[in-house]
Write a structure and sequence with these properties.
alpha/beta, Rossmann fold, 3 domains, nine-stranded mixed beta sheet, 37% helix
């Protein structure tokens, strides 16, 4: 017995010597086993529990010393982030501290050996944040409680809309009080009705001033694309027709004769929905005037205020009588327009533009709690892949989707890739549609409506389709080309899991280039720390200096 116990002791001591590359905790457990054997008992079964932070620190120390890092087993339970390498997965119960350095799956993705690696952000909730019920003590669980009239509530019920979303509960009461507002909320949260409902309430409370020439609409909504303008006009018409409110739309690419016919068909339109280009041409040719505006909305502000539309939007703002306070909005003799800026993300320099036409101090900022956060109800997968393998991976994703599943939206970064990828899908007999900005207006007209009606389940597009369009039937978004900015990524992800969608949806992103990896690292870090994406703006800053305001007034 003594010899057998001595042999066991020598065997365990040998294991201690051989464990030089292991952590101190492992050596401590083995030494306790030696003590148990030397005392005449069996190997000790005591467990030394090491805090998670200490485990990670010991692993980093071993890596810096050139030793092999120990395998850290994933904690049991549901995962927040699932990796191909289990030791890099993160459970939901773990939240990294602000100063804690995360172990990123994408840390080594700039090396060619990383091809084939992937990770995905799991769904942490089944329902979109916008559909979360209001607090029990809030009292804003219905449209009536928000201050909307019975006629407007009945029109909503006819459209099967009975409960407001989170952004609507927050925005409608403030807008009804006549405040200029910056409304920032995540994509797919119901922002369109958040400004249309108080707009219609105000039009119903104010009688029309009679015919005017040129036509002078009482309210104006400016949007960056024809597809989005058509969508908002459809929603506004379905809501306004039972109330006796008329809605008109003008968009570019159809010729000024079409714009003139639209304006002259009903010169007393209550709401005009327009794109910046067509609206500015109509203003210059005196086909329309804005002196009777009592409501002005700039929707999808981050796109409207980029270099493409900035000068046009500024021209519209200069010709509109913008109110500076709720008192001016309420004055029915000297009509001033209430200004509402809407979007999921906002560009730099927004304050400089708005300070030319109004006082920034009168603006109210309305933001949602999940603004600029990764949507928790959408599964998001990132695949490090070679460029030549993307087509095969895409075809497999479409095949796995199946004909009975929802629609697929494929994003590319430029029109040439859209056309080239369309030829590939044609060769594989996959029925699809294409949508990109270089198409003639006659080709673009009706493409998105055809996709919405379900006549085709695959749409290959640029970021033209990532802003504001209702894609409630889409279940899969594929970023064939990874977006160039974090706001673009948020907008693309927002095409699934929208208010009205039957399923939360999934997003798959192909990560190919080194500059793509930089953005993926920021996304992964924000996901692990449960923070918002960096660099996003949701407030108005940087008003113009007083000297610039004086020079502008003199001109």
């Amino acid at each position: 017995m003594a010899l057998s116990r001595l042999g066991a002791v020598m065997a365990v001591l040998g294991e201690v010597v051989r464990s030089g590359a292991r952590t101190p905790a492992v050596r401590l457990i083995l030494l306790r086993s030696v003590q148990g054997l030397a005392g005449g008992g069996q190997p000790s079964e005591s467990v030394v529990r090491i805090p998670r932070a200490l485990q990670l620190r010991l692993a980093r120390q071993s890596t810096r010393r050139g030793r092999e890092a120990p395998v850290v087993l994933t904690r049991p339970g549901k995962l927040l982030l699932r990796s191909r390498r289990p030791q890099l997965s993160q459970p939901r119960c773990v939240t990294l501290g602000r100063w804690e350095r995360p172990c990123l799956v994408s840390a080594g993705w700039k090396h060619r050996r990383a091809y084939g690696d992937y990770f995905q952000l799991e769904r942490s909730q089944d329902q979109a944040p916008a559909l979360q019920p209001p607090p029990a003590a809030g009292g804003n669980g219905s449209f009536q409680a928000l201050g909307l009239g019975p006629a407007l509530v009945s029109a909503l019920q006819a459209l099967s809309i009975t409960q407001p979303t989170a952004v609507q509960r927050r925005a409608i009461p403030t807008l009804l009080r006549g405040r200029n507002a910056l409304c920032a909320a995540e994509t797919g949260s119901g922002k369109t009705l958040a400004y249309l409902l108080p707009l219609f309430q105000k039009l119903l409370s104010r009688p029309s001033l009679g015919p005017a020439w040129p036509p002078a609409p009482r309210s104006l909504v400016v949007l960056p694309s024809r597809e989005l303008a058509e969508q908002v006009r459809t929603v506004a018409s379905s809501l306004g027709s039972p109330l006796g409110l008329s809605v008109r739309e003008i968009g570019g690419g159809r010729g000024m004769a079409s714009v003139k016919n639209q304006l002259h068909s009903n010169p007393n339109a209550d709401l005009l929905v327009a794109t910046p280009g067509a609206l500015c041409k109509a203003l210059r040719k005196r086909m329309v005037k804005l002196d009777r505006l009592c409501w002005l909305v700039l929707d999808e502000a981050d796109t409207l205020l980029d270099l493409t539309f900035l000068d046009l939007v500024e021209e519209v703002l200069m010709q509109a009588p913008i109110a500076h306070s709720p008192k001016e909005v309420a004055d029915q003799w000297d009509i001033k327009a209430q200004l509402v800026i809407v979007g999921a993300t906002f560009p730099e320099g927004l304050g400089q533009l708005l300070s030319k036409v109004t006082d920034l101090g009168c603006f109210t900022t309305l933001t949602s709690q999940s603004l600029h956060y990764l949507l928790p109800h959408i599964q998001q997968k990132f695949i490090c892949i070679k460029g030549i393998d993307k087509v095969a991976e895409l075809l497999q994703l479409i095949k796995d989707q199946g004909p009975s599943s929802g629609a697929v939206l494929i994003f590319c970064n430029n029109a040439n890739t859209v056309n080239w990828l369309g030829y590939i899908l044609d060769d594989h007999k996959i029925k699809h549609l294409r949508l990109q900005g270089q198409m003639p207006a006659a080709m673009r007209a009706g493409i998105f409506n055809t996709f919405q009606k379900g006549q085709s389940d695959v749409l290959v597009c640029t970021d033209l389709a990532s802003r504001g369009l209702d894609t409630s039937r889409v279940e899969l978004v594929v970023n064939y080309d990874f977006p160039s900015t974090l706001p673009d990524y948020l907008h693309r992800v927002g095409r699934v899991g929208r208010v009205g969608s039957k399923v939360p949806g999934t997003v798959v992103s192909f990560v190919t280039h080194r500059w793509d990896v930089d953005l993926v690292r920021k996304i992964e870090t924000a996901a692990r720390r449960r923070t918002s994406l960096p660099g996003m703006k949701s407030v108005i800053k940087e008003p113009l200096p007083k000297t610039d305001l004086t020079q502008t007034d003199e001109q």
